[in-house]
């Protein structure tokens, strides 16, 4: 009987193959040491990889149904990603967590319009595979610079197999024109999914809003959040903790890192304020919280009863009391 690697703990996988589609992108194929079936996942799922002591999240590009391996695309942009480029090869063992998904599809739709920007193409490839498998109608727009066309041929082939339309664009003006044209042509009921840098996502949302797209049919995930100001120092304590002392969080240090530094079981995934996985209940007033995420709406922010710990922080006006799961 083959084992299935559980998602609730750290697991060790083995690098079985490495591809280099561009100078800065490597594709890693990972499998269980015993060759067993890995936990399945839906399009948009991430795998966390221990990259030299830092946990980085990477989108899975496969179909995700009873997978024998996981495939991730890693862009060399410093930090943990550079460590992966320089240290992992065929035969290397690597610690992983997941898969987890904060960008899952709505399976009620039968037609999808996909928009990818740069390395944001990786979850879009998984979506395209799902479209072929499920028989969804498909259209894809892929925006990238000329040398960074990782997955372009594969994405084009998947779109063709699905009987869909594939468009590659370069500069922003071209993308604006293509999105304006394509979004206004989509049949009623189409669901749109986009992944790319923050500027591309802002453009996608703006064009969709101008075309009257309802929020429930518009989905996105972005990366590369701009550097945030360090903010003020603030204090917090953990609800129900026998140790009632407050802890100080210095400017430039996130509440998430402060909690993890204490060994607290604080949840997280993206570390960019876009997935919502690090959301915690907090006892505070709206004036005590500096919300910097892309998840909470105005009503939730004004309530002052929750915080996304990876990017948001206290203002220093009062003590935050957070509740851990």
TrEMBL record:
<dbReference type="Pfam" id="PF22290">
    <property type="entry name" value="DmmA-like_N"/>
</dbReference>
<keyword id="KW-0560">Oxidoreductase</keyword>
<feature type="domain" description="2Fe-2S ferredoxin-type">
    <location>
        <begin position="234"/>
        <end position="325"/>
    </location>
</feature>
<dbReference type="GO" id="GO:0051537">
    <property type="term" value="F:2 iron, 2 sulfur cluster binding"/>
</dbReference>
<dbReference type="InterPro" id="IPR012675">
    <property type="entry name" value="Beta-grasp_dom_sf"/>
</dbReference>
<dbReference type="InterPro" id="IPR036010">
    <property type="entry name" value="2Fe-2S_ferredoxin-like_sf"/>
</dbReference>
<keyword id="KW-0408">Iron</keyword>
<dbReference type="InterPro" id="IPR039261">
    <property type="entry name" value="FNR_nucleotide-bd"/>
</dbReference>
<protein>
    <submittedName>
        <fullName>Ferredoxin</fullName>
    </submittedName>
</protein>
<dbReference type="InterPro" id="IPR054582">
    <property type="entry name" value="DmmA-like_N"/>
</dbReference>
<dbReference type="GO" id="GO:0016491">
    <property type="term" value="F:oxidoreductase activity"/>
</dbReference>
<dbReference type="Pfam" id="PF00111">
    <property type="entry name" value="Fer2"/>
</dbReference>
<keyword id="KW-0285">Flavoprotein</keyword>
<keyword id="KW-0288">FMN</keyword>
<keyword id="KW-0479">Metal-binding</keyword>
<dbReference type="InterPro" id="IPR050415">
    <property type="entry name" value="MRET"/>
</dbReference>
<keyword id="KW-0001">2Fe-2S</keyword>
<dbReference type="InterPro" id="IPR001041">
    <property type="entry name" value="2Fe-2S_ferredoxin-type"/>
</dbReference>
<dbReference type="GO" id="GO:0046872">
    <property type="term" value="F:metal ion binding"/>
</dbReference>
<feature type="domain" description="FAD-binding FR-type">
    <location>
        <begin position="8"/>
        <end position="106"/>
    </location>
</feature>
<dbReference type="InterPro" id="IPR006058">
    <property type="entry name" value="2Fe2S_fd_BS"/>
</dbReference>
<keyword id="KW-0411">Iron-sulfur</keyword>
<dbReference type="InterPro" id="IPR017938">
    <property type="entry name" value="Riboflavin_synthase-like_b-brl"/>
</dbReference>
<dbReference type="InterPro" id="IPR017927">
    <property type="entry name" value="FAD-bd_FR_type"/>
</dbReference>
